[in-house]
């Protein structure tokens, strides 16, 4: 039998052969940012395969604070930008390469160099780019409508023509429409009924493994503020306060959780309320609905030592989810690893605060629990469409106000609704 030292030596030789094959000779330094249980490091491997670890503690105090206080992937990505910049400035690396992030924002290097990190459109890890590629299309990016379409979808430059735009809803679609309108030189009023911008991005970024989505809220909000969008929070547009002369109105009011006609549905906790920390759950939870929202909420609860069961009407979890195979496999693995139980082909017939009853194959079963989470889906908020059509010549309904879909459709429709304005 080989001794441990011999095994390690063979593994190192194999590693060197692979590196020569991949990187060529002479090999160039490369950078990998990763986190341990209590810190974040940049692993720099030079042309002699010497490994240098640059700990976050060697960086700026503000970066250390972000690591120590947030301890999530958002901090890891910020430190990645800072470490990469420092490594190049100190001559440790000749260059740093990025993958998905360069689809989200190809001007990442210039913005980092100019210390304008707040203007970087963040990759949210949705893998829409891979889904497009695997489907035989050119790459798309959820947060960048111009990805692979820089010329075809270029925004007309401001020509001095003044236009007034009303945006109803401050989610991703509404914010993107407002940003695009300001970039065209238009005046924009954005109305949001809640006390903050973001819409359904807040619950989407709620699970412990999807914090990257929250960076998109910050980016969009920052761009709205820097461009001078007139933002009106805590203001719901109704037939009673709809006024003003606008050249175009964007209805981006998003969606609200669906409430199917099941006895006891009013006793449930909304998954969106749990994911936005507006509601808490017990230790034993039944989640009704195993689409993306329900499955992600279940995994989040199970990751906090919760006993969770998913009850789904379809034959399997994620049955109607239109996402990349990578995402699907990762989420299914998380369901298994975190011990989430699944009851598929199950039609819920009754709900109480402490139980869920369902039918399957002619049999009736009841699950006891502390909390019932409602994740059966969303319905569009498009009630104002007819009223807007009567009052204004140009009205566009975008994002989840059309139908609950994806970040990609919200961002892209917000951009194109303004791009095509004449």
Mean pLDDT: 84
Shape: globular
How many DSSP-defined strands?
18
CA-atom Rg in angstroms: 25 Å
Major β-sheet profile? 5 strands, parallel
Give the low-confidence spans.
14-31, 33-79
Helical content class = 25-40%
Spatial strand arrangement across the major sheet: 6-5-4-7-18
Helix-and-strand structural type: alpha/beta
- Quote the distance from N terminus to C terminus: 76 Å
Structural write-up:
The structure is a single chain. The protein has 14 helices and 18 strands. By secondary structure, the protein is α/β, with parallel strands linked by helices. Strands 6-5-4-7-18 form a five-stranded parallel sheet, sandwiched between helices. It has a five-stranded parallel sheet with strand order 9-16-10-11-12. Helix 7 runs parallel beside helix 9 (212-227). Mean pLDDT is 84; it is low at 14-31 and 33-79.
List the defining traits of the structure above.
single chain, 422 residues, five-stranded parallel beta sheet, 14 helices
Topology:
Layout: H1 4-23, E1 30-35, E2 40-45, E3 51-55, H2 61-70, H3 73-89, H4 100-104, H5 108-113, H6 128-134, E4 164-168, H7 172-183, E5 187-191, H8 201-204, H9 212-227, E6 230-232, E7 248-251, E8 255-257, E9 269-270, H10 271-275, E10 284-288, H11 292-302, E11 307-311, H12 325-337, E12 341-343, E13 347-352, E14 355-360, E15 363-368, E16 371-374, E17 378-380, H13 385-391, E18 395-397, H14 407-419
Parallel strand pairs: 4-5, 4-7, 5-6, 7-18, 9-16, 10-11, 10-16, 11-12
Antiparallel strand pairs: 1-2, 2-3, 8-17, 13-14, 14-15
